[in-house]
Design brief:
With 321 residues, this protein is α+β, with helices and mostly antiparallel strands. 21% of the residues lie in helices and 21% in strands. The chain has one domain (25-319): Sandwich (Jelly Rolls). The protein has helices at residues 36-46, 57-73, 106-113, 115-125, 191-197, 211-215, 239-246; strands at 10-11, 14-15, 23-25, 48-51, 129-131, 136-140, 146-149, 163-168, 172-173, 178-182, 203-205, 250-252, 255-256, 261-265, 270-273, 281-290, 317-319. Strand 1 and strand 2 (14-15) form a beta hairpin.
């Protein structure tokens, strides 16, 4: 994969080697977009499916515009600039998850939960599909990224046949970061990663020293190794250490574009490269599954239409350790 001259990708401010044994390009799957059997076989083989241009670019552009106008109104973008350029206001570094960007955003809902996306999911699952009601929106400011993790630890109370769709809501060159997937990581079923995959970030030790802090919402969750320290859900903060432990390469696209979508399983290790540009990187994470299988109660509407409880107090589960 061609790397821009003098550009050094990083995760968590730690440089990632770009040699052919460490870093590479995602396999494209546009050629099998309408072949359900081929999609399922390739997902089993690779742990991900990358579809450049599978979504309507004009629709994605409309969704982006709504988000960027909101960010401009909040002072996150450079005053006087075109909101669609996403130039971060001076000092903007803390923007990350922004659920509000999805609220009452009809163009975004059409991109994520109608049309081409849902046709793709129907091909993949070969049955009726449901999506989570919670929409994860990431507005990642300069200098920020996402530590390596698997989605299982955040949403493993329903079916394992859960698929994440990462959708860039803007053209994302390498300098802005973008998603990276660890090659063949979904196949690793032993050792430290197996232990990690069986954890739930919202389960805590009722008899532990931090139990009351978690109940009161003063502490999010405990580390899965039993050390009773706070944990973000990351497998590790060191992408190079992970690659050395598990093998494989970190895979990405030299430039994600609006209209692309990347799917992966809840057992696939992934992260994002740091955003080393002056722009806010906008993307969404959405989840889909066969409709007849149980869904994680944290991410769907309540019986009377209540908002998903997410990682709040209602989602915590105590256990004796």
């Amino acid at each position: 994969m061609e790397i821009p001259h003098e550009f050094i990708p990083s995760v968590g401010k730690k440089p990632i080697p770009t040699g052919e044994d460490h870093f590479g390009a995602l396999r494209r799957s546009a050629d099998i977009l309408t072949d359900g059997d081929a999609l399922r076989n390739r997902l089993a083989d690779d742990g991900y499916l990358y579809f450049p241009g599978a979504l309507d670019r004009d629709q994605v552009t409309s969704a982006r515009r709504v988000c960027m106008e909101r960010l401009m109104a909040q002072g996150a973008l450079e005053a006087g600039s075109d909101p669609m350029d996403a130039i971060a206001a001076h000092g903007t570094k803390k923007y990350y998850f922004m659920e509000s960007l999805a609220e009452e955003n009809d163009p975004l809902m059409r991109v994520l939960y109608e049309g081409a996306m849902m046709r793709l999911m129907a091909q993949l699952f070969d049955t009726d599909v449901r999506h989570f009601d919670y929409t994860w929106m990431r507005a990642v400011g300069p200098g920020n990224g996402t530590s390596p993790h698997c989605d299982a630890v955040y949403m493993n109370r329903g079916t394992e046949q859960l698929i994440t769709a990462w959708t860039p809501l803007g053209d994302i060159p390498l300098v802005q970061g973008g998603l990276v997937v660890l090659e063949n990581s979904h196949r690793e079923k032993t050792g430290k990663l197996e232990q990690y995959l069986h954890q739930d970030v919202d389960t805590f030790c009722e008899n532990g020293p931090n139990a009351q802090k978690i109940r009161d919402g003063k502490m999010a969750w405990e580390h899965y190794d039993g050390s009773f320290r706070e944990w973000s859900g990351a497998f590790s903060d060191d992408a190079n250490e992970i690659r050395a432990l598990l093998g494989g390469r970190w895979l990405t696209s030299p430039e994600y574009r609006m209209g692309d979508v990347l799917l992966f399983t809840i057992a696939t290790l992934h992260a994002s490269l740091d955003n080393n540009s002056d722009r806010i990187r906008l993307s969404s994470d959405t989840r889909y599954q066969p409709a007849h299988l149980p869904a994680d109660e944290r991410w769907v509407l309540g019986a009377n239409g209540e908002r998903p409880i997410a990682h709040g107090a209602a989602g915590k589960r105590g256990k004796i350790c």
